Amino acid sequence: MLTRPERTLAMALKDLDTCLGKTYELYHYLLRLPVELTHIQEVRLDEARNKYLPTEEELNPNMKFVNNRLVSELANNEVLNQYAQEHTITWNDDPIFERLMLDKVIKSDIYSDYMGCDDDSMDADSQLWQQLMKQVILPDENMADAIEQRSLFWTEDDLDLVGQFVCKTFRRIAEGAEDAIMPMFKDEEDSSFGKELFSAAVTMMPENNTLIDELVQNSRWDKDRIVLMDRIIMCAALAELRTFDKIPAPVTLNEYIELAKNFSTAGSGQFVNGILNNAIKQLNKEGKILKR
Q1: I need a labelling partner for 287 at 20 to 30 A (CA). Which of 36, 207, 269, 276 fits?
Q2: Lowest-confidence pick of 49-53, 129-133, 169-173, 208-212
């Protein structure tokens, strides 16, 4: 029978799996959005063409946006379509959001420049959606509201991170990569990394907290004034340093300093940098890690 700490850890690991799965689901939602917005615009153009007394422009609209090659690749991708079917990935259940987002896309300078440009290539088609994602869609407050309504697991920070992978996917499609759609994990080692790191961070937390307090005291900081997020970041970094021998210490250090800068206070990056550097020296001296 599992002890209470073991049950708690098991439940936390299950939540971690759920969170990772939801992040991958967001990736697919963002990849699906260009397809559905393009379809709505195609319907609009068709309705305008067939209305009573259409204008010359309505009879002969510029179809460049609707015929975007990147969107065609996304729409016909078997991997995306299968995932969308299995997980019901669609924005069609929120037509107001789709209409507002399409209107912002069409009113953007990015759209106008694309429609007026003579460059008729897959690269130009891909660049359009990369720019729209970065400058129009992801920063939009309606997008933030839309994803938060769909899942409690999704935040604006998730949008920024997953959006980078979406734009990378657009570039890979334009380059003709056969495996452009990213898997949830690149391999078995990648799949197990998060669970191993989380378990190590929890298991080693008392010892790592003691080390952090000693180093903070020696540096004349007040340990009671350490920001909680800084302590969590440093405990995770120390667990990674002590558990994953193949990851160089500078790589771990740089990653967690960036986390402190992005998710904690203005001075956290410098503080975490100083404490972790001293921790690496001490752990090497004690033989608990063998890397610098």
Answers
A1: 269
A2: 49-53
Looking at the structure of the chain, the number of domains it has is: 2
- Residue carrying the six token digits 């689901």: 25
pLDDT at 14: 82
Burial of 278 (0-12, 13-18, 19+ CB in 10 A): middle
Same domain, 34 and 169: yes
* Alpha helix segments (H runs only) across the chain: 4-49, 56-59, 69-75, 78-87, 95-107, 109-116, 122-132, 141-150, 156-174, 188-203, 205-218, 228-243, 249-263, 268-286
**C-alpha–C-alpha distance, residues 215 and 213, integer Å:** 6
Is pLDDT larger for residue 188 or for residue 171? 171
* Per-residue pLDDT tens digits for 231-280: 999 999 999 999 998 899 999 999 999 999 988 888 889 999 999 999 99
Three-point CA angle 275, 281, 286, nearest 5°: 120
Q: Is residue 183 part of a domain?
A: no
Whether 149 and 194 map to the same domain: the answer is: no
- pLDDT tier at 230 (50, 70, 90 boundaries)? very high
Last residue of a domain, which of 123, 151, 174? Answer: 174
For the ranges 30-44, 70-84, 113-127, 255-269, which has the lowest average pLDDT?
255-269
The CA–CA distances, whole Å, from 264 to 19, 198, 272, 280 equal 21, 19, 10, 22
CA 232 distance to own-chain centroid? 21
Q: Note the pTM of the prediction, 2 decimals.
A: 0.83
In angstroms, the CA 46 to CA 278 distance is 66
Instruction: Report the alpha-carbon distance of residue 20 to residue 238 in Å, rounded.
Output: 22
